[in-house]
């Protein structure tokens, strides 16, 4: 099995990634043999996973997902189990020790083909279904947020964002992290246009959750950051961002101010991640990273008009 080039590039991220990628073809073969699966299509990939179309022994067409384990996606299996296919892809089998998931096969169509506001309406309605009571084994979002905020604060003046946005994120983030809502629901953590696919059982189903016990209002930011070209084409970035924001809030029924604060918090954390990644690699920020930082700062600025 040939590893898709886009996934093979992750070897540049370090020796752990390189070792995982080297062993990936053998791992895929072993899991297919153990679960009596036959590959029936070209491999696909996400940022940290190989996704292989397969057919089971009973002839059912499924998808085998093999992931590089990371701390912030450790709750994926628990979230999928808890959702039981309601609003999300159905989990058929799992081997967490090998990072292997067997999932129902969905259609290739995602929300990128829809008008952005129509997509926000769909995602907002999905949120209200996914935000069910968390199970005890889900990782808690609070610890992650406090760690990310500490990293942001440690950068001090090296954060390439307006200081008032950074201080707003630190203050609001710490307050939100101490709120009882931080353990109130299962949070997907990465809901955006690519992570909602057309289904057969239901029109649209969420995939690839991070899986946290957290605050439902945490969810909105990825729907604002992605499909950026559509926002630029509107001619009024701030207003277009707020239109998406209000559509998501209205469709989900979430608290507007909490959602606003979380968008600012996640935007500044996103800036911090880019700076820290560049430092870890011993190089300046890349053009791609600078573009992403601009998105995050612009999104935080747009939220200043939300009262």
Automatic annotation (TrEMBL):
Lineage: Bacteria, Bacillati, Actinomycetota, Actinomycetes, Propionibacteriales
Lineage top rank: taxon: Bacteria
Protein name as it appears in the record: Aminoglycoside resistance protein
An annotated Gene Ontology molecular function: phosphotransferase activity, alcohol group as acceptor
SUPFAM superfamilies, alphabetized: Protein kinase-like (PK-like) (SSF56112)
GO biological process: secondary metabolic process
Pfam families listed in its UniProt record: APH_6_hur (PF04655)
